């Protein structure tokens, strides 16, 4: 079954408030947050969260203010990230040329497909995940932001046969996805993939997947969900936000759609759309009871 969801409930803030009033409120909120940043009563962790909020309010995504340290290989396997040893001057990025000068509004459109793989393939990828539990590594964000993401990752170089199977399936499906996401067809130059495990307390705060020099050719994000039956965790929903692209930044609006991580289902959405993974509750804390995904990005050619 394919759903293409595009309707919304609530109204956006700027429908209700005048632009000037909204500006005043934004400035006031930033000033309030700024004073908290200087307060000795606030922990460093809370200060970091406030700093992210301020950056978000002024339209800078934490994913964007430093170029990604991910170096995807040409064969499409996502590679482990390496922390940069020191801060170096950022060269004028090529992706400036694709920065949005006029505001572009992205509704939280997505395509959700149930029973994406056969039951045997669904079982096989779970077996792969469980048999390689000791080869997962902690995830990072492109900015190495603290407390922004908690999960572990198995790189696709460790499951090449399943990578190829999934890649073919994704490439077959892509032509029907683009029109539903209001996207022009494009040549997929690379299919990035990783296997991600979220266990008790894991999450991924609001971000988008294509906001840096290394990621701007990502067009479509896909997330294939799988887990043991019966399901042993709760939470872990994906929230997909209405997003405004303005002056090179992606700004999330209040409205979002919720995608449940259902076994053997997949979701596709525009990689520029802001999204987050809500905290997972997995009382047993056993690896095999967690929320698993095969997730990644369909890239366009760089031109
Ligand atoms: O697990 C999900 O639902 C989304 C994961 C995600 O946003 C990412 O890996 O960039
Ligand atoms: Fe993401």
From TrEMBL:
Keywords: Dioxygenase, Iron, Metal-binding, Oxidoreductase, Vitamin C. Residues 185-300 form the Fe2OG dioxygenase domain. This is 2OG-Fe(II) oxygenase. Residues 66-81 have a biased composition (Polar residues). It holds the Pfam family 2OG-FeII_Oxy_3. Residues 66-92 are annotated as: Disordered. PROSITE patterns: FE2OG_OXY. It comes from Limnoraphis robusta CCNP1315. Residues 82-92 have a biased composition (Pro residues). Its cofactor is L-ascorbate.
């Amino acid at each position: 079954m394919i759903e293409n969801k595009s309707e919304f409930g609530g109204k956006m803030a700027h429908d209700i408030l005048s632009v000037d009033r909204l500006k005043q409120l934004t400035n006031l909120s930033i000033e309030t947050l700024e004073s908290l940043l200087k307060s000795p009563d606030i922990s460093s962790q809370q200060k970091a969260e406030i700093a992210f909020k301020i950056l978000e309010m002024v339209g800078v995504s934490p994913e964007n203010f430093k170029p990604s340290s991910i170096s995807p290989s040409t064969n499409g396997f996502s590679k482990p990230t390496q922390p940069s040893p020191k801060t170096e001057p950022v060269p004028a990025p090529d992706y400036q040329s694709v920065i949005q000068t006029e505001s572009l509004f992205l509704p939280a459109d997505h395509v959700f497909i149930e029973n994406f793989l056969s039951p045997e393939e669904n079982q096989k990828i779970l077996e792969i995940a469980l048999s390689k539990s000791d080869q997962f590594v902690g995830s990072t964000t492109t900015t190495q932001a603290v407390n922004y993401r908690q999960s572990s990752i198995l790189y696709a170089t460790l499951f090449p046969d399943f990578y190829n199977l999934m890649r073919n399936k994704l490439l077959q499906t892509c032509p029907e996805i683009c029109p539903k996401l209001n996207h022009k067809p494009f040549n997929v130059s690379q299919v990035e993939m990783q296997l991600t495990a979220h266990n008790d307390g894991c999450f991924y705060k609001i971000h988008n997947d294509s906001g840096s020099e290394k990621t701007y050719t990502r067009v479509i994000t896909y997330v294939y969900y799988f887990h043991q039956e019966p399901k042993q965790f709760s939470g872990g929903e994906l929230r997909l936000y209405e997003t405004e692209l303005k002056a090179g930044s992606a700004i999330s609006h209040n409205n979002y759609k919720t995608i449940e991580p259902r076994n053997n289902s997949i979701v596709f959405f525009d990689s520029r759309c802001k999204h987050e993974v809500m905290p997972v509750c997995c009382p047993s804390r056993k690896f095999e009871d967690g929320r698993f995904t095969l997730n990644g990005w369909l890239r366009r050619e760089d031109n």
